[in-house]
């Protein structure tokens, strides 16, 4: 695996060199992890003329941290708890003779940026922009394997929950139980805060679990995902509690299902991000629910649960093969509840079988 | 309660006015929450010549968010998912006639800061610094009540764990069980990632739970805390597994206990931060463990689990009454394990009974 990280760093160095910076400082945590293979909190990565270096703080109340390193990457643990690794890095870059250092201006605070400038005024700070985020969009097969395992764990956790008694339990407890089951099945943790929404809360994106208890006749929507070796997937399903759903519940479910299927089927290399969104959105708008639809209908996943691309009306760009995305339309009717259906898929060429569905829990409307 | 938040905002406005800025933009999430009483992710707070305004993004995949507001605070939900609330805020400030806007340069990224400058070049951006963080150090009695409840919940969760069978269970499962119990007892969630460390891991600050199982003869150290209405406390205890601890375990425990007690007893208004650290550190150094001690022996707690002040050798400043802090010395012997004892206390005047211990679980060396 260590070759992978060295290769990624090599590509970034080439990209920097082409734009006039011999050295680059990566500070955004997921970007550091992507390029170093693992990094303790607060670590920054210096790619320079010399050896690449991972600069780590001592944790304020802990032992010196240890990073996983490959042979081309040097670990530098800073002596004091108060030393900013970014400031130490610009100093190291200056020592290596760098005159321009590209930094992540979308991540570094104004105060840190200024402290770096003061520490080494000889070094001009340029902007690396989102170069690393752009590299991260297309995944290699090892990354997709991690996502596939994350999805398997997620399906298992959700499947077990569906076999248990739900009526009378609170949203909060159901969310905790799902998170425990994720870890039981091998997740490093939840990929994001698990959402369980019942009754009038159902179908609300990002609903925070409350003390409301599951009741007969409720819609129940859940959204969860496992973090496996840093890779995060997402699944969302909506169920009905009780013997038979009401007519309005069946109609709303069928509508959202149709919208979600249309967006899934539109996933292919070369397809514009906005087209995927439109495939789902026009079905929901056509049924008169335009006002109840979220502004973004899907997004990339990987080392972060929300990555590029965004599948939204204004989004610029086109899908590539090997890009994992969520497709998650939903409709929430204030006071009544709603439906959200969410899958993680990998964009694949038609010749490779088309979009690969990672989250395989059924999307039939189950009455639990 | 709404008066409280309006008063806090009034103090900050006065402070800004005194330093030449009629308007201020608060973007750091815990600071926004402190001043607004609650805020959705990504919200920023504009304190200006006109009404104060809480500017909230629409969540990328959700419904428009709702903030808890008091009557003097206006809620502005931005129309698009892509609008940066900080950019919208500088535009609003300009519209209200502000010519200087103080911003949190330690929080705002270089890219956001530049976007604000471009959106309203007529408005000069000044630095608010850590003005809000400084205001947050001394807590009012309502805040301390939240911390006290958080500590009660934490003690309950830990107490229940001690009554269960531990041998053979993994660090990871014990940590999850503790987090479930925190929520069972009314926590909004864990205050931070629960740490459970066994055998050679015991006593390491910030140890991430692994699949190692508890064995007879182990040291077992746990560190956990509840989040109650946003307020976060912390407790750390070390136990021995089995019938009787080894001599080296008793000696190490007694030493860390003595160091922790010395630091606790040194907590009083007017005492220098560094003195508290030194009270514990000199005992550990005197026993020859100087190299094994963490660089910071305690810190403030509140809306964040690590707040000012830092109790560390170089820290400048003195304690005030009503400042809640942790006192958490530990010694970790590589390969053997170690001891960490951690309490949350509130600094109080001698006449008020001296430091108030919030986390009351026994600090006897229990053999479990």
* Coarse morphology of chain A: elongated
Tally the helices of chain A.
9
| CATH topology descriptor of the largest domain in chain A | Creatine Amidinohydrolase
CATH class of the largest domain in chain A: Alpha Beta
Could you tell me the radius of gyration of chain A in angstroms? 23 Å
What is the helix content of chain A? 25-40%
Unreliable runs of chain A? 60-68
Provide the domain count of chain A.
2
The strand count of chain A comes to 19
Largest interface: A-B, 43 and 43 residues
C-alpha termini separation of chain A: 44 Å
- What percentage of amino acids of chain A are in beta strands? 15-25%
* Average of the residue pLDDT scores of chain A: 92
Order of strands in the sheet with the most strands of chain A?
4-3-2-1-5-6
Under CATH, the homologous superfamily of the largest domain in chain A reads: Creatinase/methionine aminopeptidase superfamily
SSE series of chain A: HEHEEEHEHEHHHEEEEEEHHEEEEEEE
Tell me which CATH architecture of the largest domain in chain A applies here. Alpha-Beta Complex
Biggest sheet overview of chain A = 6 strands, mixed
Domain Creatinase N-terminal (chains A, B): 8-138
InterPro entries (chains A, B): Creatin/AminoP/Spt16_N, Creatinase/aminopeptidase-like, Creatinase_N, Pept_M24, Peptidase_M24B
Pfam family, one (chains A, B): Creatinase_N
Domain Peptidase M24 (chains A, B): 146-348
């Amino acid at each position: 695996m260590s070759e992978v990280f060295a290769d990624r760093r090599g590509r970034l160095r080439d990209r920097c060199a082409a734009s006039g910076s011999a050295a680059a400082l990566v500070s955004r945590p997921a970007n550091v992890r992507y390029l170093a293979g693992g990094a303790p909190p607060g670590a920054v990565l210096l790619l320079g003329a010399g050896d690449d270096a991972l600069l780590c703080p001592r944790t304020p109340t802990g032992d010196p941290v240890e990073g996983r390193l490959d042979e081309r990457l040097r670990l530098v643990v800073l002596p004091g708890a108060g030393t900013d690794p970014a400031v130490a890095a610009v100093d190291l870059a200056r020592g290596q003779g760098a005159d321009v250092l590209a930094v992540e201006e979308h991540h570094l605070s104004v105060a840190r940026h200024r402290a770096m400038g003061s520490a080494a005024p000889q070094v001009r700070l340029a902007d690396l922009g989102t170069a690393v985020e752009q590299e991260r969009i297309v995944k290699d097969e090892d990354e997709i394997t991690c996502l596939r395992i994350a999805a398997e764990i997620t399906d298992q956790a959700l499947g077990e929950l569906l076999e248990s008694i739900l009526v009378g339990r609170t949203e909060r407890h159901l969310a905790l139980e799902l998170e425990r089951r994720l870890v039981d099945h091998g997740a490093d943790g939840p990929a994001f805060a698990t959402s369980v929404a019942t009754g009038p809360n159902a179908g609300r994106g990002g609903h925070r679990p409350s003390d409301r208890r599951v009741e007969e006749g409720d819609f129940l929507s859940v959204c969860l995902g496992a973090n496996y070796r840093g890779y995060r997937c997402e699944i969302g399903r909506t169920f009905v509690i009780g013997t038979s759903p009401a007519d309005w519940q069946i109609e709303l479910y069928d509508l959202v299902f149709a919208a979600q299927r249309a967006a899934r089927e539109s996933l292919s290399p070369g397809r514009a991000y906005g087209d995927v969104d439109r495939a789902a959105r026009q079905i929901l708008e056509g049924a008169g629910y335009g006002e109840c639809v979220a502004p973004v209908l899907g997004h990339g996943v990987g080392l972060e649960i929300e990555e590029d691309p965004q599948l939204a009306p204004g989004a610029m760009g086109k899908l590539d093969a090997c890009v994992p995305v969520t497709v998650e339309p939903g409709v929430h009717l204030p006071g009544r509840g709603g439906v959200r259906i969410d899958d993680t898929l990998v964009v694949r060429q038609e010749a490779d079988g088309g979009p690969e569905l990672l989250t395989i829990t059924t999307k039939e409307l189950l009455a639990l």
